[in-house]
Amino acid sequence: MASLVPFQDLDLQLGPSTFTVAGNCSSSGAGSSGMIVPKIEPKLEPLDEFAQADLQTPASFSNPSPTSNSGFSLAPPRQSEGGYGLSFPGDDNVYSEFHRISEMFRTAFAKRMQRYGDVEVVEDPDSRAIVPVNNEGQLSTVVIARRKYQQRSSELVRVTDLSPEDQRYFRDVVRRTRMLYDSIRVLAPLEDERNQQFGHFKKTRGDLKAAQLMRERGLWLNRDKRIVGSIPGVYVGDLFFFRMELCVVGLHGQVQAGIDFVSASHSSNGEPIATSVIVSGGYEDDMDSGDVIIYTGHGGQDKNSRQCVSQKLEGGNLALERSMYYGVEVRVIRGFKYEGSASGKVYVYDGLYRIVDCWADVGKSGFGVFKYKLVRIEDQPEMGSAVLKFAETLRTRPLEARPTGYVSLDISRKKENVPVFLYNDIDTDQEPAYYDYLVKTIFPPHVFQYMGASAGCDCVNGCFGNCFCAIRNGGEFAYDHNGILLRGKPLVLECGPHCRCPATCRNRVSQKGVRKRFEVFRSRETGWGVRSLDLIQAGSFICEYAGIVLTKEQEEIFKMNGDSLIYPSRFSERWAEWGDLSQIYPEYVRPSYPSIPPLDFAMDVSRMRNLACYMSHSSSPNVLVQLVLYDHNYACFPRLMLFAMENIPPLQELSIDYGVADDLGKLAICN
């Protein structure tokens, strides 16, 4: 089992890996530098400059109806949540009267409501509520909803001795938390679209809404302890699109500030201790060479990120100095612009660093700054930021980056939109190069003659609103405008050949084929595997799991010959996890429409296959199988489309849950 090593006091200078506790410690003399008192500002991230303000705004989805296929009700937004709505003459008087009457009733039942613990009664001299006033002239009483946020602990601990079972458990907790965050984030624009019909035109930030909802439900991780060192379940190389997601998983707890620390007022001995930093090149005096970082302290910058006043040794700056003094390692997250990110930027966890030096210096702008030398601790996995840069080289100059190991630079032989590499630097096996590459599943001819094959929508300029295909999907489109799957369903019905909408229609995502660059590679752990050279966003389409569909008679013959068969019915229903809001709304019911009969067919991949056949099995996969129809309406024979369940960094192996074992105790995996 894992152990929690407490940090009760920081009285002694400690070794690199041991922390004992006792007594009190005075502050270091490094603070007496005699420099100009600076303008104290946190080390901010430019793209998130409004994050903290927006986070204070209540965020909520429409509470889903238990009978709704989409999980959302279409109730109009409440005027009390931001004052939005159509404006008409006399609205001010109407809403004023509305609030006056509301407060009257809320006040009348205030004392009774308090017993439930979700409200508090406060004195408000400006209240318009009509309430009895006693003879002593007490102020009127109003009721204010109380938000019960789990406060972040100041208790420092280090997690040690994680067993393999512990590691799998914490990884799954982080994985599910991030999946919920991404599900809410991509669904937020859908709610905005629906609210437009009620006069609400404000565009919300999905990342902030997701963080707010999860915070209100107590779903932020690592709030009960402040972890020093590695966060259980977060691996070196993990990639995030938004600052708020770092807060949700507990990797970095500051919404904007680049230095996360326990403040002196909360520390056991009155000294601040830093636990993580974000390196994003926002300070002109920063220097980053990978394993060694010269990190500039915070404060003293203007709105254009120029140093305009000298820094002071307090707050996060003092916390870094104290962490150096006590030998406390810090987590380093690098942030930079990256094409393909949902936010235009990525944050990559690059592991643990030690602060080995600290000094005052004159910066490039002529003002005093504090600098810290951070050195990466040895024997850690490769930095995620380095992997991103290497993958970029592979996409453009593969033979320059890896002169040997390539068996083929395109096993699809130009059948896919982009090349599919074949790489093996372990042995001489070249098996994937010998198969005929199959882009799409081949169905028996009778499938396309099934009833209703000619049905389609009449949306000439692209599908929107309640077009025929949206209605078939339960009244909403399956994808957002960026082609991201909004939530998993038993079946997704895309626009097909009989629809009048163009090929660019938002409801034609999976039929457009492979858009990312993939590599089939030889792995010592899983045999053949698949990884992407591009960053894959959660909810993005990957490829079709292609094979040749067999009739019952053909299936029996192939079984006797011992050939490779894939049974679609055995894939686990991981689609139900993507968009699952049951942790947000207890009454949430997973989608059951469009419905689909049991799948009773097999696919042969013994002679023809595509890159999906080389994806390995995992009980915690990062890829889900979503059933899709678009070129026929025979629901018994859907296509197996693969979508990302989480943000998948370049060169990270893709995995599927192939489901239950067959009678021989083997998974239905072709490789």
Give a structural overview.
The protein has 671 residues and is of the alpha+beta class. The protein has two domains: 3-54 and 151-381, PUA domain-like; 404-656, Beta-clip-like. The chain is built from eleven helices and 28 strands. Strands 6, 7, 8, 9, 10, 11, 12 and 13 form an eight-stranded mixed beta sheet that branches. The chain has a four-stranded mixed beta sheet with strand order 14-15-18-19, with no helix packed on it. A four-stranded mixed beta sheet has the order 17-26-27-20. Strand 11 (330-337) and strand 12 (345-362) form a beta hairpin. The chain is globular, with a radius of gyration of 29 Å. The chain starts with a strand and ends in a 15-residue tail after the last strand.
What is the topological layout?
Elements: E1 3-7, H1 51-55, H2 91-108, H3 110-114, E2 119-123, E3 141-145, E4 156-160, H4 164-195, H5 206-216, E5 226-227, E6 239-240, H6 243-249, E7 259-262, E8 273-279, E9 287-288, E10 292-296, H7 316-326, E11 330-337, E12 345-362, E13 368-376, H8 384-396, H9 398-401, E14 406-408, E15 420-423, E16 436-437, H10 468-472, E17 492-493, E18 518-523, E19 527-532, E20 541-544, E21 548-550, H11 552-561, E22 565-566, E23 602-604, E24 608-609, E25 616-617, E26 623-629, E27 639-644, E28 655-656
Parallel strand pairs: 4-5, 8-11, 15-18, 16-24, 17-26, 25-28
Antiparallel strand pairs: 1-4, 2-3, 6-12, 7-8, 9-10, 10-13, 11-12, 12-13, 14-15, 18-19, 20-27, 21-23, 22-23, 26-27
Helix pairs in contact: 4-5, 5-6
